[in-house]
Amino acid sequence: MIDIITTTLQAICNKLIAIIMTTLQAICNELIDIITTTLQAICKELLGIITTTLQAVCIELIDIITTTLQAICNELIDIITTTLQEICNEFIDIITTTLQETCNELIDIITNTQQA
Fold first, then answer.
1. Taxonomically, which superkingdom (predicted)?
2. What is the DSSP string of 26-95?
């Protein structure tokens, strides 16, 4: 009887952890997509303003600055995206570990109660 309860509780915990992990990953991916898209739009807008202003000054200068700004923006987007993904992965790992430990403790408590 205890084995059935333990197996059932472990299966429930595994399902809950899987659902929570999947949900958190989806949320993190959505946030990363939103932030990346927003940053790209901001960078595009800034590049447009700077480009328009510089057109009156010098075409060569515009090409150099635009290329450099695009490279900087791409690097920033990559750094922010990577950092957010690492933070999300750490967060998911912490929650998963905590949930697993809690489930194991609950199973132990229930198992010990059933034996007593």
1. Eukaryota
2. HHHHHHHHHHHHHHHHHHHHHHHHHHHHHHTT-HHHHHHHHHHHHHHHHHHHHHHHHHHHHHHHHHHHHH
**Residue 67 three-state SS:** helix
Residue-wise pLDDT for 19-43, tens only, equals 999 999 999 999 999 999 999 999 9
Q: What is the CA radius of gyration of the chain?
A: 25
**Predicted model pTM:** 0.48
**Residues 6 or more apart in contact with residue 56 via CB below 8 angstroms:** none
Q: Distance between CA atoms of 82 and 88, rounded to whole angstroms?
A: 10
* C-alpha distance from residue 113 to each of 37, 39, 41, 75 (Å): 53, 55, 59, 56
